[in-house]
Amino acid sequence: MLKTQKAGTQCNLAEMGQVAGQLWHCLCDNGKIGLTELERKMEAAPTLTHMAIGWLAREGKVDLAQEGRSIKVWLTESI
Are strands 10-11 and 2-3 parallel, antiparallel or unpaired? Predict the structure, then answer.
């Protein structure tokens, strides 16, 4: 189990994996998207969304870049 820093709630790897799958589908549907907008579209806590981005980034499935004052996230692989 992982403990999120801010809320002090626990999540497990299965839950994080489910959020990563939802995030992948969201990016598939929306393309390159700002982090703030992505957080609004996700049905998960922002902390879980961030962990899912890290999960997918570690697997090489998403990429991130700062563009101006925004952080953009997109899929690195085509479907």
Answer: antiparallel
